[in-house]
Amino acid sequence: MLRHEIRPGRAVAGLVMLALAGGYAADAARAWNATWTFFAPVFFGGLWLAATVTWVSYRLRRRRAARKDPAEDSAAQAPSCGGATGR
Asked: For the whole prediction, is pTM greater than 0.70?
């Protein structure tokens, strides 16, 4: 299975949008009476939270990469074949 980069900011934004969609659906079904002034702060607050989570995760990845041991980095790279292309 291919591994992919985890993006927690997108996950937070998706969860906020799902919550908003559920709120709109409940309001449309008359199960919940909410005004539009409730949804606007939730929307913008969710975007702010997603941006903050993205920024924090970016800083943590950069810090982790900076702390990585340089000896591990050079040992992990495969040795070169002297420029042979296999022709």
From this structure: no
